[in-house]
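haha ok so turns out i had the wrong file open the whole time. this is the CORRECT one, sorry everyone. sequence first:
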Amino acid sequence: MSQTRILVLVGSLRAASINRRLAEAAAKTAAEGVELALYEGLGEIPFYNEDIDVAGQVPATAQALRDAVAASDAVLLVTPEYNGTLPAVLKNAIDWASRPYGAGALKDRPTAVISASISANAAKWSHDDAVKALGVAGATVVKEASLNFGGIGQRFVETHPADDAEALTQLAATVHLLATAANVKANA
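then structure:
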């Protein structure tokens, strides 16, 4: 049986962010045969611009993201909420990975979104906007793998998500559903 590779894109660039901790905890829940790899370097990718998206001249950081997405079996976005939506760095990653239009690395790739915010409503907003952008980009969004964490300011300030049994159970379910969708696609 081959390894299922899930690429994790974390929308917060802060090293100690709760979203990064959620991604790390999700990686710990992966079953045997499933590997979650947190992508580093989203903050170094220039904003998407068609003038620099030219064959043979794509910025190396953008090409590295495209290659990582293309080499994965699925993609998991872990997004905070910034001003009622997903952060620009995550939207930028979606934009680069969606090109060239209709044939980008995200095309038909199983994806799922975990969102987290101090507000339950805001976590849902960033989640919904990420799902919308992924869908328009051509990804296959695994909606049943959706996960929203509201109230993270209280819940995870003192406790790492890896030490929260309920969070681990929820993260494991998301990872399992996404891996299952990737395996179904691979065997279709």
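The chain has a mean pLDDT of 95.
again sry for the mixup
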